[in-house]
Q: What sequence folds into this?
């Protein structure tokens, strides 16, 4: 055990020279904002798909409730997977080459197991929770079928994408912590929302067949996962299959509750979206960028803690630099979101309102959200590290989910203040 710890420390010093965690503020902003700008364009496509789902939202009541929870799940599991890979590369536990080693397999299969189980729970609990708030909803079988199929479809595409992206970035001296949180939402939201759209189109006629398929699929996932043995692995315990499940599952259940709450809040504000349909394009933009900015700050602080560049609950130069970066990114990307959403509204012939109002709404919403999420991300990283939980399994999942419901509340509040 001592040899393993000593080797890990040597590797950490060796790879610290290659790490970009201690990069200056200017470099952090250049790498992060470049990806955030690209993600703004991508999230506008998600908003367009969401606006096109209005008929499906009517045909399948309660569908809007599971959308935030599913997009959260995609980000929570995929981003945590990417952050674990990034930290392992920074510490030298993983070598910067494409190879499906035992530690990578543990992380990939744990991600699939978490996705399948949480997606199933999302579909089953959405209807009873909806009834509590007197919101009309489809039955649990319909929503769970849509939830699992959409979540697993997106994961089959996203997890390999994250794996390649992290290794490619690290090999080219780009800090994965700066790009995983922004890129994953833009790619994942498009894929997840599209998967929900196409699954919902065929779900009613194929319900009985899908229910049997779900049971079989869940059984295969858990039986396969039971074959992973941790007692013969030499890599750190926090990166093993069962330890990832142990640390991640309770966090994801909390995130699930937050995501469902966000969906219920969205569903209850459907009259506002009927009056101003363009706002549907702002929803994924604001919550995705706010979560991405918080995720960048949290990822960088998490890695800095492992490298020794930061200490828990100490606001040194490294921590303050990353907090400043989060605030600046929010101020810059806010107006851009408003401009892109307005242009997409013109392109899709969606009813518009005054240009300056949409800029005001997007700027205020994202500035407040990015500031809050950056602060929460830093404290979450500090606390999880202090209690010996891997911040990679905690920070991004919680920030993504909290960013969703907080972003929706902030957005709707500002909309009512500016437009109503």
A:
């Amino acid at each position: 055990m001592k040899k393993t710890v000593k080797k890990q420390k040597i590797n950490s010093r060796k790879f610290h020279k290659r790490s970009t965690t201690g990069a200056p503020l200017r470099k952090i902003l250049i790498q992060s904002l470049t990806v955030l700008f690209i993600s703004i364009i991508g999230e506008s496509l998600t908003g367009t798909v969401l606006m096109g789902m209005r008929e499906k939202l009517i045909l399948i009541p309660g569908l809007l409730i599971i959308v935030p929870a599913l997009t959260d799940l995609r980000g929570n599991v995929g981003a945590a997977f990417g952050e674990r890979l990034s930290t392992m590369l920074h510490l030298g536990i993983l070598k910067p080459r494409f190879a499906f080693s035992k530690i990578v397999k543990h992380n990939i299969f744990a991600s699939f197991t978490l996705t399948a189980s949480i997606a199933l729970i999302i579909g089953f609990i959405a209807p009873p929770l909806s009834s509590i708030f007197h919101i009309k909803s489809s039955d649990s079988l319909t929503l769970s079928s849509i939830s699992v199929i959409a979540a697993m479809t997106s994961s089959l595409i996203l997890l390999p994408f994250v794996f390649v992206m992290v290794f490619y970035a690290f090999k080219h001296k780009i800090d994965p912590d700066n790009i995983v949180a922004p890129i994953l939402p833009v790619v994942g939201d498009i894929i997840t929302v599209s998967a929900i759209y196409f699954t919902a189109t065929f779900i009613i006629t194929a319900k009985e067949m899908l229910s049997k398929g779900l049971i079989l699929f869940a059984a295969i996932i858990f039986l396969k996962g039971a074959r992973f043995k941790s007692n013969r692995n030499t890599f750190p315990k926090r990166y093993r299959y069962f330890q990832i499940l142990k640390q991640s599952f309770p966090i994801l259940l909390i995130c699930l509750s937050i995501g469902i709450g966000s969906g219920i809040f969205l569903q209850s504000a459907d009259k506002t979206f009927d009056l101003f349909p363009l706002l549907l394009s702002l929803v994924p933009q604001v919550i995705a960028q706010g979560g991405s900015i918080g995720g960048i700050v949290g990822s960088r602080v998490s890695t800095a803690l492992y490298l020794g560049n930061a200490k828990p609950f100490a606001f040194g130069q490294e921590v303050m630099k990353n907090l400043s970066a989060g605030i600046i990114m929010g101020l810059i990307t806010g107006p851009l979101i408003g401009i892109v959403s307005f242009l997409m509204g013109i392109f899709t012939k969606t009813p518009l309102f005054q240009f300056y109002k949409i800029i005001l709404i997007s700027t205020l919403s994202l500035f407040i959200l990015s500031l809050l999420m950056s602060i929460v991300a830093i404290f979450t990283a500090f606390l999880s590290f202090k209690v010996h939980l891997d911040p990679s399994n905690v920070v991004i999942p919680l920030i993504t989910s909290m960013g969703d419901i907080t972003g929706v509340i902030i957005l709707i509040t500002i909309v009512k203040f500016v437009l109503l």
User: Anything to note?
Assistant: Residues 1-20 have pLDDT under 50 and may be disordered.
